[in-house]
Amino acid sequence: MADTRPPPEGPEIREIYTDSLNGIGNPAMAEKLGAILSFTHIGTGHVVKFPAAILSFTDSHDAALSKKYGWGSAEPTVDMTQNSTRKISFTFAVASASIEEARYNAQSINLLICMMYSALDARNTPSINGSRINIKGMNFIQDIYGEGVDAFITTLVYKPDLENGLITSKRTSSSPEMYPTIIKFSIEAEVLIRAIASAAQNLPDSYPNYGGSGQ
Amino acid sequence: MTYQYSPIKSIGKRSYAPLTITTGTPADSIAEAKYIFLKDYSETYAAKWDLTRDPGALNPNWSYGGTERKINMSFTLGARNVAESKHNLAYCAKLIKKTYLNYLEESTRVVGTGAGQVGIPNLFGVNPDVLSVNFGNLIQDTDVYLTKFNFEADFEAGFFTYDDTAIDNWPMATPPPAGAAPNPWPTIGSRGLAQDERWNRDHEGHDAYISEQGYVFHGKKGKVYPRSINVQIEMHAILGSSVTGEPASPLGFGGKSRGGSTVSKGWSLNNDRDWPHGTGPIDAAKYCQPNIVAPSSPNDDSDESDNVGERSSSLRSSIGR
Question: pLDDT tens digit string along B228-276?
């Protein structure tokens, strides 16, 4: 009997787990509130979504100044702002309430981790997009158009919360299964800023787009 | 599997995965399978981006330089008796050596300055051993370099100590087993020596001469054996697996192992196995499924999901695990 599964040519779109607890679980609540955290791998179009159980979020905007020091001057002269960078870091948790949900989440988590790698060409050379990922997370992580931000994730940490225990299988196969009930992810990324210069040569009023009044 | 207190071993067998660390070939197991008390676990994926900015530019010019994977684990090795404590110490010693290079060359190094310079013998090493690690579905036969090993004896938990209390009736505490010589024991000795002797005759845990819980003193003067050891290890994962024979080809989507197709979005390992974490009996995620259609065995009458579920286990059993 031949394996008739089709070759995996299309992008994988992994939605959040929806079968839990008859609509009262964490994913169901996330669906209801629209609290979804979405990651899209630029090189392949693979998408994975999680309930946005965000535990911490920092958005850091740093200006690097070009300075000149001269003899006799009390302080350096600032010539210009060399560059500004935007870095985001956030932590979110993925929780599972059953072995089925844990297995589903494990595959979603695997895809997120795989996104930390590049698309490869026929010679195994990484694509120019590398592991660039578009991240969208409610009104904190979005660009001025309300879409996700393109991010260079420099660090992704997978850290099970072991105090909340593991979900184990009944050992139906000889390969033991252990799924942490709660897994925390810490992500640090530098983001690309999508903006078109206006006549005033400034970033639009909607940047950064936290969804504040008037934005 | 190394000796471990039998209740822990039996609970582990039912529900948990042992930590198995080998040098890659099954015959050369440097640290056999062991059930550990996991305290902390993390994996770090660090993508190397070179982000440079032209003066005044809003966005950087970028260049991707690969992604590295590190695994950190902290766990406790508990000991219920002297024998288990000794095994734990040996286990740690075996692994600690793997954080060092293989020192195969002897030469000299120069110390001091000027006329005071002297050459003293020194060892020079080459690459450390590559280890293969398996820990259930969390670490699936992954080749690593062991980059850190912290050994910490838990002093609050205490130690198994030497005991020279003279006893003369210890052979009578448990009668010799049927068929044994009438009095195979010395008639007088120390409690520690007696327990060592009984344990050695028992060949670890047969419970005929001494129970597993009863072996709590030893006869080696000047030695202490910790009841609990806290271990922290850091591993740097490398490409390929010496256990599964997975080639050391780059990780990513598409690539050579996907037939060199530039449009393939499949995971480069192309082995019908979820990566990095296993997911039990369910089918591998779509992008991990193979794009080379191969006929399955004519004798395979199991359904597909079971078949997929046994992927890794059959692989391990084929190499003797």
Answer: 999 999 999 998 777 777 777 789 998 888 876 556 889 988 888 999 9
Q: Could you give the CA distance from residue B191 to residue B167 in angstroms, rounded to a whole number?
A: 6
In chain A, what residues touch B63 (CB-CB under 8 Å)? 130
Give chain A's domain count. Answer: 1
In a domain, A86, yes or no: yes
Answer whether residue A133 is part of any domain: yes
Residues in A closer than 8 angstroms to B57, CB to CB, are 83
Asked if residue B193 belongs to a domain, the reply is yes
Q: Are B138 and A178 inside 8 Å of each other by CB?
A: yes
How is residue A148 annotated by DSSP? Answer: P
Q: How far apart are CA A182 and CA B33, in angstroms?
A: 26
- Inter-chain contact B256–A120, Cβ cutoff 8 Å? yes
Is A182 within the bounds of a domain? yes
Task: Determine the pLDDT at residue B303.
Answer: 34
Residue B167 within a domain? yes
State pLDDT tens for residues A17-61. 987 556 667 777 787 788 899 999 999 999 999 998 999 999 998
Q: What is the mean pLDDT of residues A171-198?
A: 83
The tally of domains found in chain B comes to 2
Q: Nearest Cβ partner of A9 from B55, B249, B263?
A: B263
Q: How far apart are CA A39 and CA A3, in angstroms?
A: 31
Does A120 reside within a domain? yes
Across the interface, whether the CB atoms of B42 and A10 are under 8 A apart is answered: no
Helix (H) or strand (E) holding A41: strand A36-41
Is B99 a member of any domain? no
Domain with A105, as residue range(s), is 13-62+78-191
Q: What residues make up the domain containing B182? A: 159-226
Crossing angle for the helix pair B191-202 and B82-97, to the nearest 10 degrees? 70
- List the single residue in B with minimal CA-CA distance to A193: B59
B138-147 tens-digit pLDDT = 999 899 999 9
Domain boundary among B194, B226, B258: B226
Mutate to test the interface with B, among A61, A101, A124 (most CBs of B within 10 A): A124
Question: With contacts defined as CB-CB under 8 Å, which chain A residues touch B232?
Answer: none
Backbone region of residue A45 per phi and psi (left: phi > 0; alpha: psi in -120 to 50; beta: other values) = left
Taking CA–CA distances from B293, the nearest residue in chain A reads A3
The domain boundary residue, chosen from B226, B241, B262: B226
**Lowest-confidence segment of A177-181, B69-73, B126-130 by average pLDDT:** B126-130
User: What is the pLDDT at residue B321?
Assistant: 35
Look at residues A153, A170, A75 and name the one whose alpha carbon lies nearest to residue A112: A153
Is the domain of B320 the same as that of B278?
Answer: yes
